C-alpha cells in the first residue's frame, strides 16, 4: 500500500511568512519509511558509475522509474502515486488556503480552473520539451543524491526555484551511518533593500539574505513549500565524507501559463545582462 507524504500532515501547520512552507520530522509511518529506506537505490543507480563531481546533485526522474523493473516495486508505486492526478488534487486541497493568498489569480495563470487542470508526467528539457506542454500541470518525483564530498562545500546556496514551478517537496533518506555535519535545508528571508537575484540560476548572495529556519537533514523529515519570489532556500555546507546525501524530490511545474511564468525574477544589473546574453545565445536560465 502506498502512503501519501501528506497523510500525517495538518494544513493548520503551514507557515505563510516570510514564505509558505511546512515540514515534519516523522513524515511517513516509520515501518513504511523503513521499507522504502531499505530499498533506496544505490548511488550508482541514481548518479551513474563514472567519476562523480564533488558534492553535486544527481537526479533520476519518475519517467525513468515507474516502469523500470530494476527499481523495487515499493518505489515504483510511490513514484506513480506522487505524480498522479489523485496526488495533485490532494496537494491542491491541502494548500488551498495558502494558494488563495499567494496566487489568488491561479486559475487565470493556468488558463483553466485548477480543479479541472490536466495532469502529465514531466520530461527533461522544461519548457523547450514539447511533451511538457501536453498538459496544464506536469508532475515529477525524483531520486536525488548529492555525491561524496572531497572539499567542504554547499551543493547550492540561496536561490529560488524555476519560475514555472508551483510547489516542491524534499523527503530525506539519510543513511544511518551518516553523522557528517551539514546538508540541512536553510530557509531565508531577503534583507530589506537588498539587491535581488544575480544570475540566470536565480541565486542571491548570502549578504543579501538572512536565515530564519534550518530544516535538519534527518531521516524521514519532509519539507514542502509553494514556489514564490520569497521562497529563498539553500543547503548548508557538508563536511568531507565518502557518504552521499539521499532524498526524494517532489515537484510540479506548469509550462502553459498565460503569463509565461508564475512570477518574474527581479535581477540586479549584472544578472539582467547575463540573462540577456543567454537568451541571445539560445540558452535558458537554469
UniProtKB/TrEMBL annotation:
Gene3D superfamilies named among the record's database cross-references: q2cbj1_9rhob like domain
Superkingdom: Bacteria
Name of the protein in its database record: Prolyl 4-hydroxylase alpha subunit Fe(2+) 2OG dioxygenase domain-containing protein
Native source organism of the sequence: Candidatus Defluviicoccus seviourii
